């Protein structure tokens, strides 16, 4: 798909009258209608059949929905530009580009999709979708097949709803664990994130729906996201954030790339020639189109010259001036043609012209909900277990504690918010307000009911946890106490620290003091600190578990399903271990969902960790996190033996893994490699399910890209000859088998 070379168009400005000429009657069917022809030939024919004005019309989207359709009172800070009806022809999505009927080019309907087909506030009345587990939960599966399945589900539902462009594919690395949007992303490692986002994108696009990888680039916090300047060296950038995008783009071939709000090394991402022109379209030869984030454009000519192809909706429509800029000679008509060509090429490549998405398609809700539950189960991470889990069948009295256990599981808030089958519960006193629509939301599948159904022989009682003393009394009277602890996350809002909110740490402490057999179920979109860790019997991280999260959690608790998730993000012992002790630019008064009505003065962020993000930072500084990247327990045990390697021009490692426990389980063997003088980085992994006593040899080929380092001076990737330390282990902090590989020198000019 999209295996075409980037075309460079350089023509002189077209006569002004061509922009104004009216379109003739419907054009005769051309080559672009012939699905047997190469993508490039079809795209070129279609764009050449368009008038210059039609080409220009593709370079700007408008809001495809209207806040008026929310049916709620809008606060005064909502501008008049957001109080208008949705455009004719739109189906109520985040973005809309009108069709060009004369050449039979379809309208573009753009919708968010990180956690399913999003609809932040019932802007498409009557439409609900499957709420998938958070993308961070997906990363915890360490399973490309699950990522492909997630994309497949999103693509199917989008197509059935008439949506042909999904803004799915978030792969910003988790440099900042207090970032309110980490639940939408794939963790802190570029290889894990890149591989999984590539599979997710491919899954979406196999249903003739364009996917979008985002937010390009270095967009790891919400505070000041419109104005901050991310500063780091070229090498650090190439080896971390850009590497995740590069791996994902090469693997998934997304139709579009969304540039971010922030600056990178002094230039806004959407008018950054280094990011868009030199790296993305130059070094990587990316043939798709670059769209801006909503409100991320600051200019016309500088943005287009840098490589921006499409302005997304915002108050100032810079791209309205394209025709005048061409007439004045400030832009070349060939630039506009190239922008349109990239959009058309991508839509043809994914099959969106040959297979038109039309609202009203069928969705198998039951099958999709079952898939969502399977994904949630695969992503749940068991962090501690002193023999408390799985729950014994003999347990007769179980105390469930925590308000939301009787409501549902959290849904991440913001533009990615999904309205799940069955609707949502919102934490807001006034449901008829915009504030309510942006408040923390929960599915209507209560974990309490799911556990009661899974343990019919037990008496399962409930306490909302509002009174720690009362909750402790309930725990003391039970065989097992289970505390469901929640930390909601929403786009636009970061956190001052890593603690659980609303006194939940004190609640857990009180409950554990009354009953040592206390299980803590964390439902968070980020790492949290655990001052009570030594007092409880078990801890599991369930993340935001999606449509059937309650059932997934119950399945792991009872042993109907075995835990197999691994942490895709390090859990710090405290904020003092982080490169930035506080979120740079954080202002508690400006933490508002979606950042609506909030302004910041510009400020820089110097990313002193460079490419040593997360677990690599801990190795570099010698700090020990609470739980390391890649960590996760099972209900059995595994032994590693028989390490062997093949080195030289590449590195392949083999090891024998044995299930030494009493039940079937899944192990994720992880390969970490350290180039000379550098920290270890994840270079590959193998996921294997074994019966008790079973042994299997796994082979892990180190990703060649992770054996390279970027030379800032030479502007190329290099692999110095020498000894490379490596280990196969259970996590970044648990080496089991160690070795040294001798590799030959290699260089890779510019990009792979």
TrEMBL record:
Keywords on record: Hydrolase, Signal
Gene3D superfamilies, per database record: Glycoside hydrolase family 3 C-terminal domain, Glycoside hydrolase, family 3, N-terminal domain, Immunoglobulins
Record has Signal as a keyword: yes
An annotated GO BP: carbohydrate metabolic process
GO molecular function: hydrolase activity, hydrolyzing O-glycosyl compounds
InterPro entries (UniProt xref): Cellulose_deg_GH3, Fn3-like, GH, Glyco_hydro_3_C, Glyco_hydro_3_C_sf, Glyco_hydro_3_N, Glyco_hydro_3_N_sf, Ig-like_fold
Annotated Fibronectin type III-like domain residues: 667-732
Domain of life: Bacteria
Pfam family, one: Glyco_hydro_3
Family that this chain belongs to: Belongs to the glycosyl hydrolase 3 family.
Protein name: Glycosyl hydrolase
């Amino acid at each position: 798909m999209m295996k075409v070379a980037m075309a460079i168009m350089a023509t002189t400005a077209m006569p002004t009258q061509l922009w104004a000429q009216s379109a003739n009657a419907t054009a005769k069917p051309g080559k672009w209608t012939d699905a047997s022809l190469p993508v490039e030939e079809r795209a070129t024919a279609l764009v050449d059949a368009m008038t210059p004005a039609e080409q220009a019309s593709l370079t700007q989207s408008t809001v495809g929905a209207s806040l008026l359709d929310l049916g709620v009172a809008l606060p005064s800070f909502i501008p008049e530009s957001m109080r208008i009806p949705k455009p004719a022809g739109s189906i109520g999505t985040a973005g809309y580009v009108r069709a060009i009927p004369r050449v039979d080019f379809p309208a573009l309907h753009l919708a968010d999709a990180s956690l399913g087909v999003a609809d932040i506030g019932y802007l498409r009345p009557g439409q609900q979708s499957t709420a998938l587990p958070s993308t961070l939960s997906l990363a915890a599966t360490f399973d490309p097949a699950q990522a492909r399945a997630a994309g497949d589900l999103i693509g199917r539902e989008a197509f059935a709803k008439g949506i042909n462009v999904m803004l799915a594919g978030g792969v910003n690395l988790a440099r900042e664990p207090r970032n309110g949007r980490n639940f939408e992303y794939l963790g802190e490692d570029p290889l894990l994130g890149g591989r999984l986002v590539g599979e997710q994108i491919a899954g979406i696009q196999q249903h003739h729906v364009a996917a979008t990888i985002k937010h390009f680039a270095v967009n790891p916090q919400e505070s000041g996201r419109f104005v901050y300047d991310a500063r780091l060296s070229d090498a650090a950038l190439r080896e971390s954030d850009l590497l995740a995008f590069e791996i994902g783009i090469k693997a998934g071939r997304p139709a579009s790339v969304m540039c971010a709000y922030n600056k990178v090394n002094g230039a806004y991402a959407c008018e950054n020639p280094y990011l868009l022109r030199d790296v993305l379209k130059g070094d990587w030869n990316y043939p798709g189109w670059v769209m801006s984030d909503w409100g991320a454009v600051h200019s016309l000519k500088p943005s287009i010259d840098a490589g921006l192809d499409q302005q997304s909706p915002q108050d100032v429509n810079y791209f309205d001036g394209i025709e005048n800029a061409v007439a004045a000679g400030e832009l070349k008509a060939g630039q506009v043609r190239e922008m349109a060509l990239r959009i058309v090429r991508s839509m043809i490549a994914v099959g969106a012209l040959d297979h038109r998405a039309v609202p009203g398609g069928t969705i198998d809700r039951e099958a999709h909900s079952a898939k969502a539950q399977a994904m949630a189960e695969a992503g749940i991470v068991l962090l501690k277990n002193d023999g408390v889990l799985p729950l014994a069948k003999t347990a007769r009295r179980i105390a469930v504690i925590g308000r939301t256990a009787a409501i549902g599981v959290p849904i991440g808030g913001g533009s990615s918010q999904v309205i799940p089958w069955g609707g949502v519960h919102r934490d807001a006193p006034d449901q008829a307000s915009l504030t309510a629509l942006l408040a923390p939301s929960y599915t209507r599948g209560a974990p309490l009911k799911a556990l009661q159904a899974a343990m019919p022989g037990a008496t399962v009682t409930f306490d909302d946890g509002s009174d720690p003393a009362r909750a402790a009394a309930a725990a003391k009277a039970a065989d097992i106490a289970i505390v469901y602890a929640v930390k909601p996350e929403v786009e636009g809002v970061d956190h001052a620290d890593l603690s659980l909110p609303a006194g939940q740490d004190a609640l857990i402490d009180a409950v554990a003091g009354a009953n040592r057999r206390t299980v803590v179920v964390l439902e968070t979109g980020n790492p949290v600190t655990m001052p009570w860790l030594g007092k409880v019997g078990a801890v599991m991280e369930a993340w935001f578990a999606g449509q059937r999260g309650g059932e997934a959690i119950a399945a792991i608790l009872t042993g109907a399903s075995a835990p197999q998730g691994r942490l895709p993000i390090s859990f710090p012992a405290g904020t003092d271990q982080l490169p930035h002790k506080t979120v740079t630019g954080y202002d508690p008064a400006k933490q508002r969902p979606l950042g609506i009505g909030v302004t910041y003065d510009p400020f820089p962020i110097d990313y002193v960790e460079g490419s040593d993000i997360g677990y690599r930072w801990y190795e570099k500084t010698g700090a020990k996190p609470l739980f390391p990247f890649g960590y996760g327990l099972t209900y059995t045990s595994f032994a590693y033996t028989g390490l062997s390697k093949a080195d030289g021009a590449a590195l392949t490692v083999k090891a024998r893994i044995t299930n030494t426990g009493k039940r079937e389980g899944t192990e994720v063997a992880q390969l970490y490699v350290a180039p000379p003088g550098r920290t270890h980085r994840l270079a590959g992994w193998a996921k294997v399910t074994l019966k008790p006593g079973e042994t299997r040899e796994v082979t892990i080929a180190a990703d060649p890209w992770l054996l390279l380092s970027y030379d800032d001076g030479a502007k190329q990737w290099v692999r110095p000859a020498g000894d490379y330390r490596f280990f196969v282990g259970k996590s970044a902090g648990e080496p089991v088998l160690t070795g040294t590989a001798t590799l030959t020198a290699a260089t890779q000019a510019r990009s792979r």
